[in-house]
Batch of 2 targets.
Target 1
Amino acid sequence: MKRWFIAGGVLLALFAALVTASVLLPDSPDRLAGSITNARPQGVRALGQVLAANGVEVTQVTTLDEATAAATAGSSLAVYLSSDLSDAALDRLQDVPADLVIAYAGNGDQDSIETLTDGQVLADYWWADSAPRADCTDPDAVAAGTLTADSAGIFTDGDTVTTCFADDSGSALYADTRTDRHRVTVVAGSRWLRNDTILAEGNAALALRVFGRNAKLVWYLPGADALPQGESQSGELDPFTLLPPWARIAFAVLLVAGAAAALWRGRRFGALVPEQLPVEVPASEVSSGLARLYRQASARGHAAAGLRAATIHRIAARLGLPASASADLVVERLAQASGDLPERIRELCYGPAPASDSALVELATDLTDLERRLTTRE
Protein backbone atom coordinates (compact mmCIF):
# COMPACT_ATOMS: atom_id res chain seq x y z
CA MET A 1 0.00 0.00 0.00
CA LYS A 2 2.81 2.40 0.89
CA ARG A 3 4.52 1.80 -2.46
CA TRP A 4 1.33 2.69 -4.30
CA PHE A 5 1.01 5.82 -2.17
CA ILE A 6 4.58 6.89 -2.97
CA ALA A 7 4.13 6.15 -6.69
CA GLY A 8 0.93 8.19 -6.71
CA GLY A 9 2.70 11.08 -4.99
CA VAL A 10 5.53 11.04 -7.53
CA LEU A 11 3.08 11.00 -10.44
CA LEU A 12 1.11 13.85 -8.88
CA ALA A 13 4.31 15.88 -8.43
CA LEU A 14 5.31 15.29 -12.06
CA PHE A 15 1.83 16.32 -13.23
CA ALA A 16 2.03 19.51 -11.14
CA ALA A 17 5.47 20.23 -12.61
CA LEU A 18 4.15 19.83 -16.15
CA VAL A 19 1.18 22.11 -15.45
CA THR A 20 3.43 24.77 -13.89
CA ALA A 21 5.88 24.56 -16.79
CA SER A 22 3.04 24.98 -19.28
CA VAL A 23 1.93 28.11 -17.41
CA LEU A 24 5.43 29.58 -17.25
CA LEU A 25 6.31 28.87 -20.87
CA PRO A 26 4.85 31.25 -23.46
CA ASP A 27 1.71 30.17 -25.30
CA SER A 28 2.15 28.56 -28.68
CA PRO A 29 0.78 30.66 -31.58
CA ASP A 30 -1.22 27.59 -32.60
CA ARG A 31 -3.40 28.09 -29.50
CA LEU A 32 -3.89 31.86 -29.64
CA ALA A 33 -7.21 33.32 -30.66
CA GLY A 34 -6.97 34.91 -34.09
CA SER A 35 -3.92 32.87 -35.08
CA ILE A 36 -3.58 32.01 -38.74
CA THR A 37 -2.23 28.57 -37.67
CA ASN A 38 -4.94 27.82 -35.07
CA ALA A 39 -7.32 25.13 -36.31
CA ARG A 40 -9.66 25.48 -33.30
CA PRO A 41 -12.98 27.35 -33.60
CA GLN A 42 -11.46 30.66 -32.37
CA GLY A 43 -8.58 30.46 -34.85
CA VAL A 44 -8.44 31.71 -38.46
CA ARG A 45 -6.53 28.89 -40.10
CA ALA A 46 -9.25 28.38 -42.71
CA LEU A 47 -8.77 31.93 -43.99
CA GLY A 48 -4.99 31.51 -44.13
CA GLN A 49 -5.23 28.30 -46.15
CA VAL A 50 -7.65 29.80 -48.68
CA LEU A 51 -5.49 32.91 -49.10
CA ALA A 52 -2.41 30.75 -49.66
CA ALA A 53 -4.31 28.63 -52.18
CA ASN A 54 -5.15 31.83 -54.11
CA GLY A 55 -1.50 32.86 -54.41
CA VAL A 56 -1.19 35.15 -51.39
CA GLU A 57 2.04 34.73 -49.43
CA VAL A 58 0.87 34.62 -45.78
CA THR A 59 3.36 35.03 -42.92
CA GLN A 60 2.41 35.14 -39.25
CA VAL A 61 4.58 37.05 -36.76
CA THR A 62 4.26 37.70 -33.03
CA THR A 63 6.93 40.36 -32.40
CA LEU A 64 6.92 44.02 -33.32
CA ASP A 65 10.37 43.84 -34.95
CA GLU A 66 9.26 41.02 -37.26
CA ALA A 67 6.06 42.85 -38.17
CA THR A 68 7.69 46.15 -39.07
CA ALA A 69 10.52 44.46 -40.96
CA ALA A 70 8.20 42.33 -43.08
CA ALA A 71 5.64 45.10 -43.78
CA THR A 72 7.25 46.42 -46.95
CA ALA A 73 5.70 48.56 -49.66
CA GLY A 74 3.22 46.71 -51.81
CA SER A 75 2.20 44.33 -49.04
CA SER A 76 -0.52 44.22 -46.38
CA LEU A 77 0.02 44.16 -42.61
CA ALA A 78 -2.95 42.66 -40.77
CA VAL A 79 -3.02 43.55 -37.05
CA TYR A 80 -5.24 41.36 -34.88
CA LEU A 81 -6.06 43.97 -32.25
CA SER A 82 -7.56 42.58 -29.04
CA SER A 83 -6.12 45.15 -26.59
CA ASP A 84 -4.47 48.54 -26.63
CA LEU A 85 -0.87 48.74 -27.82
CA SER A 86 1.91 50.87 -26.36
CA ASP A 87 2.66 54.30 -27.77
CA ALA A 88 6.02 53.12 -29.08
CA ALA A 89 4.40 50.21 -30.92
CA LEU A 90 1.73 52.44 -32.44
CA ASP A 91 4.37 54.89 -33.68
CA ARG A 92 6.26 52.11 -35.43
CA LEU A 93 3.11 50.66 -36.99
CA GLN A 94 2.09 54.09 -38.27
CA ASP A 95 5.40 54.40 -40.12
CA VAL A 96 5.30 51.12 -42.07
CA PRO A 97 4.83 51.54 -45.84
CA ALA A 98 2.51 48.53 -46.12
CA ASP A 99 -1.27 48.86 -46.14
CA LEU A 100 -2.79 48.29 -42.69
CA VAL A 101 -5.77 46.00 -42.14
CA ILE A 102 -6.94 46.14 -38.51
CA ALA A 103 -9.07 43.24 -37.28
CA TYR A 104 -10.58 44.91 -34.22
CA ALA A 105 -11.42 42.08 -31.80
CA GLY A 106 -11.38 44.05 -28.55
CA ASN A 107 -13.79 46.28 -26.68
CA GLY A 108 -14.92 49.85 -27.06
CA ASP A 109 -12.38 51.36 -24.65
CA GLN A 110 -9.35 51.16 -26.94
CA ASP A 111 -7.50 54.16 -28.36
CA SER A 112 -5.15 52.27 -30.70
CA ILE A 113 -7.57 52.40 -33.63
CA GLU A 114 -7.87 56.18 -33.36
CA THR A 115 -4.09 56.53 -33.36
CA LEU A 116 -3.48 54.19 -36.31
CA THR A 117 -6.12 56.01 -38.42
CA ASP A 118 -4.95 59.53 -37.48
CA GLY A 119 -8.15 60.13 -35.51
CA GLN A 120 -10.53 59.24 -38.34
CA VAL A 121 -11.89 55.97 -36.83
CA LEU A 122 -12.75 55.37 -33.18
CA ALA A 123 -13.60 52.19 -31.28
CA ASP A 124 -17.26 51.69 -30.43
CA TYR A 125 -19.77 49.02 -29.44
CA TRP A 126 -22.18 47.16 -31.67
CA TRP A 127 -25.77 46.95 -30.43
CA ALA A 128 -27.78 45.55 -33.37
CA ASP A 129 -28.87 41.90 -33.32
CA SER A 130 -29.11 41.12 -37.03
CA ALA A 131 -26.35 40.90 -39.62
CA PRO A 132 -26.07 44.33 -41.28
CA ARG A 133 -25.91 44.95 -45.03
CA ALA A 134 -23.08 46.86 -46.66
CA ASP A 135 -25.10 49.88 -47.93
CA CYS A 136 -22.00 51.69 -49.21
CA THR A 137 -19.89 52.14 -52.34
CA ASP A 138 -16.84 50.15 -51.26
CA PRO A 139 -16.49 47.25 -53.77
CA ASP A 140 -15.14 44.79 -51.19
CA ALA A 141 -18.01 45.40 -48.78
CA VAL A 142 -20.58 45.35 -51.57
CA ALA A 143 -19.25 41.96 -52.74
CA ALA A 144 -19.72 40.59 -49.23
CA GLY A 145 -23.30 41.86 -48.88
CA THR A 146 -23.71 41.07 -45.16
CA LEU A 147 -21.35 40.47 -42.26
CA THR A 148 -21.51 38.57 -38.97
CA ALA A 149 -21.30 40.99 -36.04
CA ASP A 150 -20.46 40.65 -32.35
CA SER A 151 -19.99 43.22 -29.58
CA ALA A 152 -17.25 45.30 -31.25
CA GLY A 153 -18.01 48.24 -33.50
CA ILE A 154 -16.38 51.42 -34.84
CA PHE A 155 -17.37 55.05 -35.24
CA THR A 156 -15.99 57.25 -38.01
CA ASP A 157 -15.09 60.91 -37.77
CA GLY A 158 -13.94 62.20 -41.13
CA ASP A 159 -15.18 62.98 -44.65
CA THR A 160 -12.55 60.78 -46.33
CA VAL A 161 -13.66 57.59 -44.59
CA THR A 162 -15.82 55.01 -46.36
CA THR A 163 -18.15 53.39 -43.84
CA CYS A 164 -20.05 50.14 -44.40
CA PHE A 165 -22.25 47.76 -42.42
CA ALA A 166 -23.69 50.54 -40.22
CA ASP A 167 -26.71 50.49 -37.90
CA ASP A 168 -29.23 53.23 -37.14
CA SER A 169 -27.08 54.70 -34.34
CA GLY A 170 -24.09 55.33 -36.59
CA SER A 171 -21.96 52.46 -35.33
CA ALA A 172 -20.35 50.48 -38.17
CA LEU A 173 -18.33 47.32 -38.77
CA TYR A 174 -16.17 48.44 -41.71
CA ALA A 175 -14.18 51.58 -42.43
CA ASP A 176 -11.63 52.33 -45.14
CA THR A 177 -9.46 55.45 -45.28
CA ARG A 178 -5.99 56.72 -46.10
CA THR A 179 -3.34 58.42 -44.03
CA ASP A 180 -0.20 60.21 -45.16
CA ARG A 181 1.69 56.91 -45.25
CA HIS A 182 -0.67 54.10 -46.30
CA ARG A 183 -4.19 52.79 -46.68
CA VAL A 184 -5.92 51.71 -43.47
CA THR A 185 -8.92 49.37 -43.32
CA VAL A 186 -10.65 48.59 -40.04
CA VAL A 187 -13.10 45.70 -39.63
CA ALA A 188 -14.74 45.34 -36.21
CA GLY A 189 -15.42 42.02 -34.53
CA SER A 190 -13.71 38.64 -34.54
CA ARG A 191 -16.60 36.26 -35.30
CA TRP A 192 -16.53 36.99 -39.01
CA LEU A 193 -12.94 35.70 -39.23
CA ARG A 194 -13.18 32.59 -37.08
CA ASN A 195 -13.00 29.06 -38.42
CA ASP A 196 -16.49 28.24 -37.17
CA THR A 197 -18.20 31.27 -38.75
CA ILE A 198 -16.08 32.17 -41.80
CA LEU A 199 -18.65 30.56 -44.14
CA ALA A 200 -21.62 32.45 -42.69
CA GLU A 201 -23.11 35.58 -44.34
CA GLY A 202 -20.54 37.31 -46.59
CA ASN A 203 -17.65 36.79 -44.17
CA ALA A 204 -15.46 34.76 -46.50
CA ALA A 205 -15.94 37.16 -49.44
CA LEU A 206 -14.96 40.20 -47.39
CA ALA A 207 -12.00 38.43 -45.75
CA LEU A 208 -10.56 37.20 -49.04
CA ARG A 209 -10.90 40.59 -50.72
CA VAL A 210 -9.61 42.70 -47.80
CA PHE A 211 -6.69 40.50 -46.76
CA GLY A 212 -5.88 39.42 -50.30
CA ARG A 213 -5.49 42.87 -51.84
CA ASN A 214 -1.73 42.42 -52.17
CA ALA A 215 0.38 39.41 -53.05
CA LYS A 216 2.02 39.42 -49.60
CA LEU A 217 0.18 39.42 -46.25
CA VAL A 218 1.89 39.74 -42.86
CA TRP A 219 -0.43 38.51 -40.09
CA TYR A 220 0.59 40.18 -36.83
CA LEU A 221 -0.50 38.92 -33.40
CA PRO A 222 0.83 41.58 -30.99
CA GLY A 223 2.95 40.07 -28.21
CA ALA A 224 4.28 41.37 -24.92
CA ASP A 225 6.79 43.66 -26.64
CA ALA A 226 3.95 45.72 -28.19
CA LEU A 227 1.76 45.98 -25.10
CA PRO A 228 1.96 48.65 -22.41
CA GLN A 229 4.62 47.80 -19.85
CA GLY A 230 3.47 45.10 -17.42
CA GLU A 231 0.25 44.16 -19.21
CA SER A 232 -0.78 40.92 -20.89
CA GLN A 233 -2.96 40.54 -23.98
CA SER A 234 -6.02 40.44 -21.74
CA GLY A 235 -5.09 43.76 -20.15
CA GLU A 236 -4.08 42.24 -16.81
CA LEU A 237 -0.77 42.78 -15.09
CA ASP A 238 1.79 40.23 -16.31
CA PRO A 239 4.87 40.12 -14.06
CA PHE A 240 6.91 38.29 -16.69
CA THR A 241 6.87 41.38 -18.93
CA LEU A 242 8.99 43.08 -16.26
CA LEU A 243 11.63 40.34 -16.55
CA PRO A 244 14.03 39.47 -19.39
CA PRO A 245 12.59 37.42 -22.28
CA TRP A 246 14.38 34.28 -21.11
CA ALA A 247 12.80 34.43 -17.62
CA ARG A 248 9.99 31.95 -18.37
CA ILE A 249 12.36 29.33 -19.73
CA ALA A 250 14.74 29.84 -16.80
CA PHE A 251 11.93 29.36 -14.27
CA ALA A 252 10.80 26.20 -16.07
CA VAL A 253 14.34 24.76 -16.07
CA LEU A 254 14.75 25.55 -12.36
CA LEU A 255 11.43 23.88 -11.61
CA VAL A 256 12.42 20.69 -13.44
CA ALA A 257 15.85 20.71 -11.76
CA GLY A 258 14.22 21.10 -8.33
CA ALA A 259 11.88 18.19 -8.98
CA ALA A 260 14.78 16.02 -10.14
CA ALA A 261 16.82 16.95 -7.04
CA ALA A 262 13.88 16.10 -4.79
CA LEU A 263 13.53 12.68 -6.39
CA TRP A 264 17.30 12.11 -6.22
CA ARG A 265 18.06 13.30 -2.70
CA GLY A 266 14.63 13.23 -1.10
CA ARG A 267 13.66 11.07 1.85
CA ARG A 268 13.29 7.39 1.07
CA PHE A 269 10.37 5.49 2.60
CA GLY A 270 11.92 2.02 2.41
CA ALA A 271 12.37 -0.66 5.06
CA LEU A 272 14.01 0.21 8.38
CA VAL A 273 17.72 -0.58 8.54
CA PRO A 274 19.35 -1.87 11.79
CA GLU A 275 22.04 0.41 13.13
CA GLN A 276 24.72 -0.14 15.76
CA LEU A 277 24.20 2.17 18.73
CA PRO A 278 27.29 4.29 19.51
CA VAL A 279 26.68 4.16 23.28
CA GLU A 280 25.18 1.78 25.81
CA VAL A 281 21.44 2.39 26.14
CA PRO A 282 19.05 0.52 28.46
CA ALA A 283 17.06 -2.11 26.59
CA SER A 284 13.76 -0.62 27.72
CA GLU A 285 14.63 2.73 26.17
CA VAL A 286 15.73 1.09 22.92
CA SER A 287 12.49 -0.91 22.74
CA SER A 288 10.41 2.17 23.54
CA GLY A 289 12.21 4.27 20.94
CA LEU A 290 11.94 1.56 18.30
CA ALA A 291 8.22 1.19 19.06
CA ARG A 292 7.68 4.93 18.62
CA LEU A 293 9.48 4.81 15.28
CA TYR A 294 7.32 1.90 14.14
CA ARG A 295 4.20 3.76 15.24
CA GLN A 296 5.23 7.01 13.56
CA ALA A 297 5.88 5.18 10.28
CA SER A 298 2.78 2.94 10.68
CA ALA A 299 5.16 0.00 10.29
CA ARG A 300 2.81 -2.57 11.83
CA GLY A 301 4.33 -5.30 9.66
CA HIS A 302 7.82 -4.71 11.09
CA ALA A 303 6.47 -4.56 14.65
CA ALA A 304 4.49 -7.78 14.20
CA ALA A 305 7.50 -9.56 12.68
CA GLY A 306 9.62 -8.53 15.67
CA LEU A 307 7.05 -9.78 18.17
CA ARG A 308 6.64 -13.10 16.37
CA ALA A 309 10.37 -13.68 15.97
CA ALA A 310 11.07 -12.96 19.65
CA THR A 311 8.23 -15.21 20.81
CA ILE A 312 9.26 -18.10 18.56
CA HIS A 313 12.89 -17.74 19.64
CA ARG A 314 11.99 -18.01 23.34
CA ILE A 315 9.50 -20.85 22.90
CA ALA A 316 11.74 -22.80 20.52
CA ALA A 317 14.53 -22.75 23.06
CA ARG A 318 12.19 -24.26 25.67
CA LEU A 319 11.00 -26.97 23.25
CA GLY A 320 14.51 -27.86 22.11
CA LEU A 321 14.05 -26.65 18.54
CA PRO A 322 17.20 -25.59 16.67
CA ALA A 323 17.50 -22.01 15.39
CA SER A 324 17.40 -23.32 11.81
CA ALA A 325 14.08 -25.12 12.30
CA SER A 326 11.61 -24.68 9.44
CA ALA A 327 8.24 -23.01 9.87
CA ASP A 328 6.42 -26.33 9.41
CA LEU A 329 8.46 -27.95 12.22
CA VAL A 330 7.87 -25.00 14.54
CA VAL A 331 4.11 -25.05 13.88
CA GLU A 332 3.96 -28.81 14.47
CA ARG A 333 5.83 -28.69 17.79
CA LEU A 334 3.90 -25.65 19.08
CA ALA A 335 0.58 -27.25 18.18
CA GLN A 336 1.54 -30.43 20.03
CA ALA A 337 2.75 -28.56 23.10
CA SER A 338 -0.16 -26.08 23.30
CA GLY A 339 -3.00 -28.24 22.07
CA ASP A 340 -4.08 -25.59 19.55
CA LEU A 341 -4.83 -26.36 15.93
CA PRO A 342 -1.85 -26.08 13.55
CA GLU A 343 -3.79 -23.58 11.42
CA ARG A 344 -4.23 -21.36 14.45
CA ILE A 345 -0.52 -21.55 15.32
CA ARG A 346 0.53 -20.83 11.71
CA GLU A 347 -1.71 -17.77 11.49
CA LEU A 348 -0.47 -16.54 14.85
CA CYS A 349 3.26 -17.01 14.16
CA TYR A 350 3.52 -16.65 10.39
CA GLY A 351 0.32 -14.87 9.37
CA PRO A 352 -0.11 -11.58 7.47
CA ALA A 353 0.74 -8.18 8.93
CA PRO A 354 -1.97 -6.59 11.10
CA ALA A 355 -4.20 -4.15 9.24
CA SER A 356 -4.66 -1.79 12.21
CA ASP A 357 -3.18 -0.84 15.56
CA SER A 358 -5.92 -2.73 17.39
CA ALA A 359 -5.11 -5.87 15.39
CA LEU A 360 -1.43 -5.46 16.35
CA VAL A 361 -2.36 -5.21 20.04
CA GLU A 362 -4.53 -8.32 19.71
CA LEU A 363 -1.64 -10.20 18.06
CA ALA A 364 0.72 -9.22 20.87
CA THR A 365 -1.81 -10.41 23.45
CA ASP A 366 -2.28 -13.78 21.71
CA LEU A 367 1.49 -14.31 21.46
CA THR A 368 1.91 -13.50 25.15
CA ASP A 369 -0.92 -15.89 26.02
CA LEU A 370 0.63 -18.69 23.93
CA GLU A 371 4.02 -18.23 25.57
CA ARG A 372 2.46 -18.12 29.04
CA ARG A 373 0.52 -21.33 28.48
CA LEU A 374 3.61 -23.19 27.25
CA THR A 375 5.66 -21.87 30.17
CA THR A 376 2.97 -22.86 32.66
CA ARG A 377 2.79 -26.41 31.27
CA GLU A 378 6.49 -26.87 31.79
Note: Residues 336 and 342 are 9 Å apart (CA to CA).
Target 2
Amino acid sequence: MKEMDHFSLYDDTLYSIYTAADFNEMRSELLDHMKQLVPHDYASILLFDRNSGEKVKTVDFYCEPSAFMKAEKKYLDAYPDDIGRRIALNGENAVVRISSLQPERERLHSKIYRDCYRNFNIYDMLQILIRSGQDMIALMTLFRTKEKGQFSDENVYILKALSRHLNTVFYKYFREEDSAATVNSAVEEITNRVHMTPKETEILTLIFLAKSNPEICEELGIKEHTLQKHFQNIYRKLNISSRWELLRFSVNAGTTGIIGRAG
Protein backbone atom coordinates (compact mmCIF):
# COMPACT_ATOMS: atom_id res chain seq x y z
CA MET A 1 0.00 0.00 0.00
CA LYS A 2 1.31 3.44 -0.90
CA GLU A 3 2.28 5.85 1.87
CA MET A 4 -0.41 8.33 0.74
CA ASP A 5 -3.05 5.59 0.88
CA HIS A 6 -1.95 4.75 4.42
CA PHE A 7 -2.20 8.40 5.44
CA SER A 8 -5.67 8.74 3.91
CA LEU A 9 -6.93 5.60 5.69
CA TYR A 10 -5.40 6.72 8.97
CA ASP A 11 -6.97 10.17 8.61
CA ASP A 12 -10.37 8.67 7.77
CA THR A 13 -10.13 6.40 10.82
CA LEU A 14 -9.45 9.31 13.16
CA TYR A 15 -12.26 11.39 11.68
CA SER A 16 -14.77 8.54 12.01
CA ILE A 17 -14.02 7.74 15.64
CA TYR A 18 -13.96 11.38 16.76
CA THR A 19 -17.25 12.26 15.03
CA ALA A 20 -19.28 9.11 15.83
CA ALA A 21 -22.66 9.81 17.40
CA ASP A 22 -22.28 7.27 20.21
CA PHE A 23 -20.03 4.51 21.50
CA ASN A 24 -21.60 1.73 19.44
CA GLU A 25 -21.18 3.70 16.23
CA MET A 26 -17.59 4.58 17.15
CA ARG A 27 -16.76 0.93 17.87
CA SER A 28 -18.30 -0.21 14.59
CA GLU A 29 -16.52 2.51 12.58
CA LEU A 30 -13.21 1.70 14.26
CA LEU A 31 -13.32 -2.00 13.43
CA ASP A 32 -14.56 -1.30 9.91
CA HIS A 33 -11.59 0.99 9.22
CA MET A 34 -9.14 -1.39 10.89
CA LYS A 35 -9.95 -4.03 8.25
CA GLN A 36 -8.18 -1.84 5.70
CA LEU A 37 -5.61 -0.15 7.92
CA VAL A 38 -4.33 -3.36 9.55
CA PRO A 39 -5.78 -6.31 7.58
CA HIS A 40 -6.96 -9.16 9.80
CA ASP A 41 -9.50 -11.99 9.90
CA TYR A 42 -11.16 -11.44 13.28
CA ALA A 43 -11.30 -8.71 15.92
CA SER A 44 -12.59 -8.34 19.45
CA ILE A 45 -13.01 -5.51 21.94
CA LEU A 46 -13.22 -6.48 25.62
CA LEU A 47 -14.59 -3.80 27.94
CA PHE A 48 -13.52 -3.75 31.58
CA ASP A 49 -15.27 -2.85 34.81
CA ARG A 50 -13.31 0.19 35.98
CA ASN A 51 -14.75 -0.16 39.52
CA SER A 52 -13.64 -3.75 40.14
CA GLY A 53 -10.48 -2.84 42.05
CA GLU A 54 -7.20 -4.58 41.31
CA LYS A 55 -8.79 -7.64 39.72
CA VAL A 56 -9.63 -7.14 36.06
CA LYS A 57 -13.25 -7.95 35.24
CA THR A 58 -14.72 -8.02 31.74
CA VAL A 59 -18.21 -6.51 31.60
CA ASP A 60 -18.91 -6.64 27.87
CA PHE A 61 -17.32 -7.69 24.62
CA TYR A 62 -17.83 -7.25 20.89
CA CYS A 63 -16.49 -9.28 17.98
CA GLU A 64 -16.22 -8.84 14.25
CA PRO A 65 -17.44 -10.90 12.52
CA SER A 66 -20.10 -11.90 15.01
CA ALA A 67 -19.34 -15.61 14.51
CA PHE A 68 -16.06 -15.04 16.36
CA MET A 69 -18.03 -14.26 19.53
CA LYS A 70 -18.13 -18.01 20.07
CA ALA A 71 -14.35 -18.10 20.55
CA GLU A 72 -14.15 -15.06 22.84
CA LYS A 73 -17.16 -16.15 24.91
CA LYS A 74 -15.57 -19.53 25.48
CA TYR A 75 -12.31 -17.83 26.46
CA LEU A 76 -14.03 -15.50 28.95
CA ASP A 77 -16.22 -18.25 30.40
CA ALA A 78 -13.55 -20.94 30.69
CA TYR A 79 -10.54 -18.76 31.53
CA PRO A 80 -11.86 -15.67 33.37
CA ASP A 81 -8.60 -15.17 35.26
CA ASP A 82 -6.43 -15.33 32.14
CA ILE A 83 -7.48 -11.87 30.95
CA GLY A 84 -5.07 -10.43 33.53
CA ARG A 85 -2.25 -12.42 31.92
CA ARG A 86 -3.24 -11.20 28.47
CA ILE A 87 -3.12 -7.61 29.73
CA ALA A 88 0.18 -8.23 31.53
CA LEU A 89 1.76 -9.15 28.21
CA ASN A 90 1.51 -5.48 27.28
CA GLY A 91 3.59 -4.35 30.23
CA GLU A 92 4.28 -0.67 29.65
CA ASN A 93 3.57 -1.01 25.93
CA ALA A 94 0.27 -0.01 24.40
CA VAL A 95 0.58 -2.56 21.58
CA VAL A 96 1.81 -6.16 21.64
CA ARG A 97 2.29 -8.66 18.80
CA ILE A 98 1.90 -12.08 20.38
CA SER A 99 4.16 -13.80 17.83
CA SER A 100 6.99 -11.57 19.08
CA LEU A 101 6.57 -12.95 22.61
CA GLN A 102 5.63 -16.57 22.08
CA PRO A 103 7.15 -19.01 19.55
CA GLU A 104 4.78 -20.71 17.14
CA ARG A 105 4.83 -24.06 18.91
CA GLU A 106 3.95 -22.46 22.24
CA ARG A 107 1.17 -20.33 20.75
CA LEU A 108 -0.49 -23.09 18.79
CA HIS A 109 -0.28 -25.88 21.37
CA SER A 110 -1.54 -24.13 24.50
CA LYS A 111 -4.73 -25.38 26.13
CA ILE A 112 -6.45 -22.02 25.65
CA TYR A 113 -5.61 -22.07 21.95
CA ARG A 114 -6.92 -25.63 21.52
CA ASP A 115 -10.12 -24.91 23.45
CA CYS A 116 -10.97 -21.48 22.03
CA TYR A 117 -9.13 -20.53 18.87
CA ARG A 118 -8.01 -23.63 16.95
CA ASN A 119 -11.37 -23.97 15.17
CA PHE A 120 -10.82 -20.47 13.76
CA ASN A 121 -7.26 -21.29 12.63
CA ILE A 122 -5.81 -18.34 14.57
CA TYR A 123 -2.08 -17.87 13.99
CA ASP A 124 -1.15 -14.42 15.34
CA MET A 125 -2.68 -11.75 17.59
CA LEU A 126 -2.05 -8.02 17.75
CA GLN A 127 -3.52 -6.36 20.82
CA ILE A 128 -3.80 -2.81 22.08
CA LEU A 129 -4.57 -1.93 25.68
CA ILE A 130 -6.80 1.13 25.93
CA ARG A 131 -6.48 2.99 29.20
CA SER A 132 -6.86 6.27 31.06
CA GLY A 133 -3.87 6.71 33.33
CA GLN A 134 -3.64 3.46 35.28
CA ASP A 135 -7.30 2.60 34.69
CA MET A 136 -7.81 -0.03 32.01
CA ILE A 137 -10.83 0.62 29.78
CA ALA A 138 -10.65 -1.96 27.01
CA LEU A 139 -8.49 -4.44 25.15
CA MET A 140 -8.79 -4.56 21.38
CA THR A 141 -7.29 -7.61 19.70
CA LEU A 142 -6.85 -8.32 16.00
CA PHE A 143 -6.46 -11.96 14.93
CA ARG A 144 -4.89 -13.42 11.80
CA THR A 145 -5.10 -16.92 10.39
CA LYS A 146 -2.01 -18.67 9.04
CA GLU A 147 -2.99 -17.73 5.49
CA LYS A 148 -2.38 -14.04 6.28
CA GLY A 149 0.69 -14.75 8.40
CA GLN A 150 2.22 -12.69 11.16
CA PHE A 151 1.44 -9.05 11.78
CA SER A 152 4.22 -6.84 10.41
CA ASP A 153 6.29 -4.16 12.13
CA GLU A 154 4.30 -1.64 10.08
CA ASN A 155 1.05 -3.01 11.53
CA VAL A 156 2.44 -2.57 15.04
CA TYR A 157 3.56 0.98 14.25
CA ILE A 158 0.12 1.96 12.92
CA LEU A 159 -1.63 0.64 16.01
CA LYS A 160 0.83 2.43 18.28
CA ALA A 161 0.13 5.67 16.42
CA LEU A 162 -3.59 5.14 17.05
CA SER A 163 -3.18 4.30 20.73
CA ARG A 164 -3.37 7.79 22.24
CA HIS A 165 -6.40 8.61 20.10
CA LEU A 166 -8.18 5.44 21.21
CA ASN A 167 -7.36 6.23 24.85
CA THR A 168 -8.91 9.69 24.41
CA VAL A 169 -12.03 8.57 22.52
CA PHE A 170 -12.86 5.58 24.74
CA TYR A 171 -12.37 7.68 27.87
CA LYS A 172 -14.61 10.41 26.45
CA TYR A 173 -17.54 8.04 25.92
CA PHE A 174 -17.20 6.31 29.28
CA ARG A 175 -16.76 9.59 31.17
CA GLU A 176 -20.00 10.85 29.61
CA GLU A 177 -21.71 7.60 30.59
CA ASP A 178 -20.46 7.91 34.17
CA SER A 179 -21.56 11.56 34.38
CA ALA A 180 -25.05 10.74 33.11
CA ALA A 181 -25.39 7.91 35.63
CA THR A 182 -24.24 10.18 38.47
CA VAL A 183 -26.65 12.94 37.45
CA ASN A 184 -29.57 10.51 37.28
CA SER A 185 -28.69 9.23 40.75
CA ALA A 186 -28.56 12.77 42.18
CA VAL A 187 -31.85 13.81 40.61
CA GLU A 188 -33.51 10.66 41.90
CA GLU A 189 -32.23 11.33 45.40
CA ILE A 190 -33.56 14.90 45.32
CA THR A 191 -36.98 13.93 43.95
CA ASN A 192 -37.28 11.24 46.61
CA ARG A 193 -36.85 13.95 49.25
CA VAL A 194 -38.90 16.71 47.67
CA HIS A 195 -41.78 16.53 45.21
CA MET A 196 -40.79 17.96 41.82
CA THR A 197 -42.99 18.33 38.77
CA PRO A 198 -41.85 16.54 35.59
CA LYS A 199 -40.67 19.86 34.13
CA GLU A 200 -38.73 20.74 37.28
CA THR A 201 -37.10 17.31 37.19
CA GLU A 202 -36.03 17.90 33.57
CA ILE A 203 -34.56 21.27 34.54
CA LEU A 204 -32.66 19.76 37.48
CA THR A 205 -31.15 17.15 35.18
CA LEU A 206 -30.04 19.73 32.62
CA ILE A 207 -28.52 21.98 35.30
CA PHE A 208 -26.50 19.08 36.72
CA LEU A 209 -25.35 18.29 33.16
CA ALA A 210 -23.84 21.80 33.08
CA LYS A 211 -26.35 23.26 30.62
CA SER A 212 -26.65 27.05 30.48
CA ASN A 213 -30.01 28.86 30.67
CA PRO A 214 -30.22 29.43 26.90
CA GLU A 215 -29.43 25.76 26.28
CA ILE A 216 -32.12 24.66 28.75
CA CYS A 217 -34.70 26.98 27.17
CA GLU A 218 -33.89 25.69 23.70
CA GLU A 219 -33.99 22.04 24.70
CA LEU A 220 -37.29 22.37 26.59
CA GLY A 221 -38.87 24.88 24.20
CA ILE A 222 -39.60 27.46 26.90
CA LYS A 223 -38.94 31.18 27.39
CA GLU A 224 -36.36 32.62 29.80
CA HIS A 225 -39.03 34.10 32.11
CA THR A 226 -40.75 30.67 32.29
CA LEU A 227 -37.44 29.06 33.22
CA GLN A 228 -36.92 31.64 35.97
CA LYS A 229 -40.33 30.76 37.44
CA HIS A 230 -39.32 27.10 37.51
CA PHE A 231 -36.06 28.10 39.21
CA GLN A 232 -37.99 29.96 41.90
CA ASN A 233 -40.17 26.91 42.60
CA ILE A 234 -37.14 24.61 42.76
CA TYR A 235 -35.26 26.99 45.07
CA ARG A 236 -38.27 27.31 47.35
CA LYS A 237 -38.74 23.55 47.62
CA LEU A 238 -35.05 23.00 48.40
CA ASN A 239 -34.86 26.03 50.71
CA ILE A 240 -32.07 27.67 48.70
CA SER A 241 -31.78 30.97 46.84
CA SER A 242 -29.35 30.59 43.93
CA ARG A 243 -28.10 28.33 41.18
CA TRP A 244 -24.74 27.93 42.93
CA GLU A 245 -26.47 26.66 46.06
CA LEU A 246 -28.32 24.20 43.86
CA LEU A 247 -25.02 22.97 42.44
CA ARG A 248 -23.60 22.59 45.95
CA PHE A 249 -26.76 20.69 46.82
CA SER A 250 -26.01 18.41 43.87
CA VAL A 251 -22.54 17.69 45.26
CA ASN A 252 -24.07 16.68 48.58
CA ALA A 253 -26.52 14.51 46.67
CA GLY A 254 -23.68 12.63 45.02
CA THR A 255 -22.64 14.55 41.92
CA THR A 256 -19.11 15.40 42.98
CA GLY A 257 -17.13 16.83 40.10
CA ILE A 258 -20.01 18.21 38.07
CA ILE A 259 -19.51 21.89 37.45
CA GLY A 260 -22.33 24.05 36.21
CA ARG A 261 -22.26 27.28 34.29
CA ALA A 262 -24.09 30.27 35.65
CA GLY A 263 -26.80 31.31 33.26
Note: The beta strands are 42-48, 58-64, 95-97, 122-132, 135-145.
